[in-house]
Amino acid sequence: MGQILENKQRIVQAVDELDSQLREIALTIHANPELSFFEHKASQWLTEPLVAAGFEVERGVAGLETAFRATWEGKPGGPTIALLAEYDALPEIGHACGHNLIGTSAVGAALALKQAFPELPGRIIVMGTPAEEDGGGKIIMCEQGLFDEVDAAMMCHPHKKTMVLRGALACVDATFSFYGKQAHASSAPEKGISALDALIHTFVAINSLRQFCKDDVRIHGIITKGGDAPNVVPEYCEAKFILRAANVRELRELTEKVYKTVHHSAEAVGARAEIKEGLVYAERNNNHALAGLFAENLEAMGIEVSDPPKKGGIGSSDIGNVGQVTATIHPYIKITEAGTHTPAFTVATASEAGLVGMNQAAKALAMTTYDLCTDPALLRSVREEFENWKKNKQAEEA
Fold first, then answer.
1. How far apart are CA 83 and CA 124, in angstroms?
2. Which of 40, 55, 188, 209 is the most core-located residue (most Cβ within 10 A)?
């Protein structure tokens, strides 16, 4: 036990030696927010230190320009551990989800491990995963097989609470397009078909569904085009929605109901509707054995780990799809009292508290990776839990 603590202290020291470099990267990304699939600068800034440290860096993996895979292998025969980097920002409010810290902490953990233990038995991959906010980069990377040979995957998200087992809903985004017929709204309204009426009926119909949905269902949308002029019957209108449910199966049941309301609402006024569906974000499958290791490493640094909310307070993330492929965790580390996706959280992700949280996340990621690479029993418990979950899921779906 004394040797393990001593070795982990080497990891702590290595992260601290990298701290000024990591801070510069995180703050630079924060000051230059880029939207999903356009994170060209962030991807470059995150890979530069990995290249310099001798990682084999592949850019544009899975057919995504801003995705990357940076690999370093110590002694052969160990597990393959993926540290996930996110780095896309939100429209208008920038890094209000802290992806500048997430990506940099993954890079910091990998660099520290290589620096502290160049003969570590294992293969360490920093997986650059773009478009978490809008587009589901991890989903595409899973479909392309990038996680098929990964034994465990981890990332650490800044938040208002430190947790290791928070859940997430399955979700999908959908664009509803309505096609009517243009006419003068005053002199010849009888010649028109209002795409806007079809859209408004859709909102009303969806609202009527809510009382017949489970408590964990979420349906939220906005009108992105409502017409061009009040005296012209709108011939094209559009809305964007996100639908969420406890898991992919229940999400499919929900979308079937919602999509029927869209088409019936259009038919009711003589319009036509089209639905364009995005990628499906799966529910989160937290590996409890892996989360336990991460919690122990946080607590060893004096960080208190809180229980997740028993009800509500959760969103969705494409890491849920990674958890369907391999053992995965998505812990959180507190940096502020503010909630994510707010201007206050944008400020926090460039604050001293945010940068300290990034440092702590890098240490916990690196120490947990060290545990998996050096203790076969711990790795086995993580993998057995995942394989048992996989068997049970396959049995349920059979």
1. 8
2. 55
